[in-house]
């Protein structure tokens, strides 16, 4: 059993150790990828792996917990130990991580007025419930009990959000109550305002910083802050940003490998670091995060490649070898090796077997919920994916005004089955003019609302806009309409299985397309989405994530673990009236 202490140095079994760590998110890749990724981290010259633990992934429905498959944090930590790595865990209820709502579960939004990341008793009771399940799973993995976990995080970049020290104290007390006895830490930016607001240094909680450049300058800020509080702790950058995340309709962000290696060298000369990200992986499903810029929310892409040292699919980059060399120059005694390689495959082209309009099959897929006024996505369902609102309006046989009030995020309006308009934050609430059919007394109105991803960082976490769907209502003329049928489209396995493909095809409406794929060879691959509009792709029931023609990434990564030898089923949900006729696999990512 190893001992780990934080004094003037990090001490492992009483001897000083420099922590050379890399971030690998177990939940952004398949368990079959973990070993190669962890091995490549060790081969880099690292001795530690770090990961967040997202609350919303493990408690997707309040009181229902899931730690299976790619959510098996215990298996990931044990595998890291087998490979010879120490582990830093970040089980804080908020993680940022460019992850949906920063890891906070959507169901929290049903509690109107509850203040997140605060001592609001309603919030802390939810945290207690979650920690009562999560923390006991982590306790046996601590170095104090023979495991590899040397540190755990209380909160993440709290100084960039709040300054309520009692919230940090209550969170710390909960972790300790449920058995955490390894050193605890916080991580914040490297400037005084956020360090003052976000740390518990006065209660001996270790302080780490997050930055990705000006290593010695930022390290000096950290050192000065700790010295002012009478601490002579080692310097640790908990997130050394080696790349960056990407948003839809913006160019891919890249960082030069040699420039990064020079900065890593500077950092290792003055302290320890955790490369964020070492291997980024993928935002499978509806878990991509969203940036907040002024009044706008800017959703992030499905790929979390991050321009990291390993690609999204795990292939070592040129950057990997530059950093490996820099580590050796500062720490010549580290063990290093050639990394394992990954080569994706082109699995061919397959025709669409059948298709159906969402409007034709919605009642087979979902039992509609009826209410006088519109329910939000959190009130009517789990809060992810899409919500279809179906309404019957009286036809006055002349032009009628229509307005959708307070809705998020992307709204597509269909009048008698025909697409009328698509609205975003900037245009939601703008008045429309609609006409009914001359031979019908009613107008069928369908409004498809997509949750593009809740913000993961900043001031909007407590904003009403993070409640998705229609919050206000639909106005016909100048009054609010009453009488709604709600179809929460989480596109779960049971919903996909209930699709009735014979119900009626209409490619101009949001539609499902089914493709059968026979395989005798399996391999990692990409689905080419460059001819599609916008939607999501399911492989054997697994949601690979969102595609969107605006780019910059026009493919979806499909790990071989999601495929089977023999028969496979792919379902595409396309929302833009773009008829899909074929499925193309590719051996490479398709990037603008």
Structure, described:
The protein is globular, with a radius of gyration of 25 Å. An eight-stranded parallel beta barrel has the order 4-5-6-7-8-9-10-11, surrounded by six helices. Strands 28-27-30-25-14-31-26-29 form an eight-stranded antiparallel β-sheet. The protein folds into three domains: 327 residues, Glycosidases (TIM Barrel); 91 residues, Sandwich (Jelly Rolls), CATH 2.60.120; 123 residues, Galactose-binding domain-like (Jelly Rolls, Sandwich), CATH 2.60.120. Strand 4, helix 1 and strand 5 form a beta-alpha-beta unit. With 592 residues, it is an alpha+beta fold. The mean pLDDT is 97. It has twelve helices and 31 strands. This is Beta-galactosidase. Keywords: Glycosidase, Hydrolase. Pfam families: BetaGal_ABD_1 (PF21317), BetaGal_gal-bd (PF21467), Glyco_hydro_35 (PF01301).
How would the blueprint of this fold be written?
Elements: E1 4-6, E2 10-12, E3 15-16, E4 20-24, H1 31-44, E5 48-52, H2 55-58, H3 73-83, E6 86-90, H4 121-138, E7 149-156, H5 165-177, E8 184-189, H6 192-198, E9 206-211, H7 215-228, E10 236-241, H8 257-270, E11 272-279, E12 290-293, E13 296-299, H9 318-330, E14 349-357, H10 358-365, E15 369-371, H11 377-380, E16 386-394, E17 400-408, E18 410-415, E19 418-423, E20 432-434, E21 442-450, E22 469-476, E23 479-480, E24 484-489, H12 493-497, E25 511-519, E26 525-528, E27 534-539, E28 542-548, E29 555-558, E30 566-574, E31 582-586
Parallel strand pairs: 4-5, 4-11, 5-6, 6-7, 7-8, 8-9, 9-10, 10-11
Antiparallel strand pairs: 1-2, 2-3, 12-13, 14-25, 14-31, 15-24, 16-21, 16-24, 17-20, 17-22, 18-19, 18-21, 22-23, 25-30, 26-29, 26-31, 27-28, 27-30
